Amino acid sequence: MTKVDSHHHLWPADVIGRQDWRPAEDEVLRRAFDVAEYHAALDAAALDGSILMQSVDAMDENQRLADYAAASERVLGWVGFADLPDPARALGDIGALVRMRGVPGGDKLVGLRCLVGSDPMSWTAEASGIAALQRAADEALVWDTVPITDAQTDAVAAVAQRLPHLRIVVDHLASPPMTDDAFGAWRDRLQRLAAHPNVAVKLSVGVAVLQRWERWDAAALRPYVQTAIELFGARRSMLASNWPVVLLRASHAQAWSGVLEALGDMDVQDRARVEGGTALDWYGVTRS
């Protein structure tokens, strides 16, 4: 059984000022995170490989990701950047990404994304936006995204319906609120996404949740993880660490074991899918 971390980052120190998602107080992240350190994290959690994710909304990020992938056989695939909301650039960015399959590490390109935060996603209903996502689907590229509002959720669901051959991965449990009074609304959003068979979900937490917590809270995570599995099933759910961002509140091993515990009792085959099989299948990467 191959065990895969479906979402982590690597970056050099010189991009820190260009990561717009970073919280104001993040001293623990204000340094480089490289392949050797991540291999140690994989070893500590007994994982075989991973999916590397972009962290900078810029085209030069893609060369960095390809270089990391070329340097590590344990990077099974990488998700690069394309400026999807910009109609004048989106198709060109995807074309440039696809051409990178000819450079060292570029053969591991498996997807694309851009950081949307709470911005409107009206571009997904425009002809240029659909054309870009259509090109992604044609090139077998997964679209990773984090819809956190009702409008964003509806936009992603509409794309899933319009482009059923486009594989979509919702990162970080769609940023759950982690409060009892908002649980129902979050579940409704997730259910609308799960209704589409070409949408999968990552069982991880993003920077917004980490900022709300004073410390790592595996117990608080459990109902969200189990709800996601209930809605998506094991074949569309995948474990992820979000390392090194998760270091704001936990080590890689602590976060990984916390999500594992949140899975609860599962069929052996379903657990194998969530721990690695789903990521391998969804991103179309080779089993090791």
From TrEMBL:
Pfam families xrefs: Amidohydro_2
The family line of this record is: Belongs to the metallo-dependent hydrolases superfamily.
Where the record annotates domain Amidohydrolase-related, the positions are 4-284
Q: Which domain of life is it from?
A: Bacteria
InterPro entries tied to this protein: Amidohydro-rel, Metal_Hydrolase, Metallo-dep_Lactonases
Report the source organism. Microbacterium salsuginis
Q: What is this protein called?
A: Amidohydrolase family protein
